[in-house]
Amino acid sequence: MNGRADLRVPEEEIHLKRGPAGLGFNIVGGTNQQYITNDDGIFVSRIKEGGAAALDGRLQEGDKILMVNGRELKNLLHNEAVDLFREAGEDVVLKIQHRSQIQNGPSNYKPDGENEGPSLAIFLVPTLIALTSFTIWAVMKYRQRM
């Protein structure tokens, strides 16, 4: 054992048949809206209950979609990827990479305007602590000079 973690993630080919509700999942990502830092890929954001993907059971939220019907999903805008899925036909073959246990993307991401974003407190609390500490230090320095 060399102490390094094996970060390779298994890939899988999944065949889905489009149902009345489409393929049954939502996607995020693309060159214009990265889901994971430094990765322009397309990711599954939500599996719709009762949809084709949910009935198959192998596709999971967070999985990266590498190919659709043999076409690589590289360097695509989000809307181009959406169009590719819409035009994929009734029988769709996905090549996917299952999510790793270590992710640098948001773990609570909500697509389609549902994302509340990080709480403002995440940014304000450290700033306020730093400002308070500096103010106390400055007051103490000022009093030492008197």
Automatic annotation (TrEMBL):
Keywords linked to the UniProt accession: Membrane, Mitochondrion, Mitochondrion outer membrane, Transmembrane, Transmembrane helix
Complex formation: Binds (via the PDZ domain) to isoform 2A of SYNJ2 (via the unique motif in the C-terminus). Interacts (via C-terminus) with RALBP1. Interacts (via PDZ domain) with ACVR2A (via C-terminus) and ACVR2B (via C-terminus). Forms a ternary complex with ACVR2A and RALBP1. Interacts with MAPK12. Interacts with DLL1; enhances DLL1 protein stability, and promotes notch signaling in endothelial cells.
KW Transport (keyword) present: no
A UniProt-annotated Pfam family: PDZ
Annotated source species: Pleurodeles waltl (Iberian ribbed newt)
Ranges of residues in domain PDZ: 13-100
GO biological process terms on file: cell-cell adhesion; establishment or maintenance of epithelial cell apical/basal polarity; receptor clustering; receptor localization to synapse
InterPro entries per record: PDZ, PDZ_sf, Synaptic_Scaffolding_LAP-MAGUK
Any one Gene Ontology cellular component term annotated for this protein: basolateral plasma membrane
Protein name, per record: Synaptojanin-2-binding protein
GO MF annotation list: protein kinase binding
Localisation per UniProt entry: Mitochondrion outer membrane
Main location: mitochondrion
Transmembrane parts of this sequence: 120-140
Taxonomic superkingdom: Eukaryota
Cited PANTHER family: DISCS LARGE, DISKS LARGE 1 TUMOR SUPPRESSOR PROTEIN
